[in-house]
Amino acid sequence: MLKSFFTKQFIGFLFVGITAASVNWVVRYMISDWIEFYAAVPIAYGVGMATAFALNRLFIFPHSVIPIKTQAKRFIAINLSFVPLVWAGAIAFAMLFELLGLKKYVEEIAHAFSLALPMLATFLLYKFFAFKDNSATEEL
Predict the structure, then answer these.
(1) Are 38 and 83 in contact (CB under 8 A)?
(2) DSSP annotation of 102
(3) Could you tell me which of 68, 76, 86, 78 has the C-alpha nearest to residue 128?
(4) What is the tens place of the pLDDT at every residue in 79-124?
(5) Cα 110 to Cα 107: distance, rounded to the nearest angstrom
(6) Cβ pair 4, 124 in contact under 8 A
(7) 41: part of which helix (H) or strand (E)?
(8) Count of other CB atoms within 10 angstroms of residue 33
(9) pTM to 2 decimals?
(10) What is the pLDDT of residues 17-29, one digit of tens each?
């Protein structure tokens, strides 16, 4: 399974993830003028999640043998399971940065750090579960 991380597919996944995380981060930044940070993080996560699904399906896992509705359900389940981690991570990083004396951009930096937390686990779950193709089972 470790060799799954040393592939073109994983590099593509990183680029898709960076793109989706950027969308997530920008949406959170934009809505933070109207919504508190703790509420804006999960809302932005949903927008980033939709972006990630579309890009992963089109570019990273285009040969999936799973029907699109099942892919979407599995993708949503995987990502919703990580909402508490990203949410708690964002708040914990913000508190840590404030404790360390950081004064500017605390929420922005904390949110960016928290978005990276589920990366490796989600790649494996997408590859072998949500977007599984015939070659994925051979790699296990």
Answers:
(1) no
(2) -
(3) 78
(4) 999 989 999 999 999 999 999 999 999 999 999 999 899 988 999 8
(5) 5
(6) yes
(7) helix 37-55
(8) 7
(9) 0.80
(10) 999 999 999 999 9
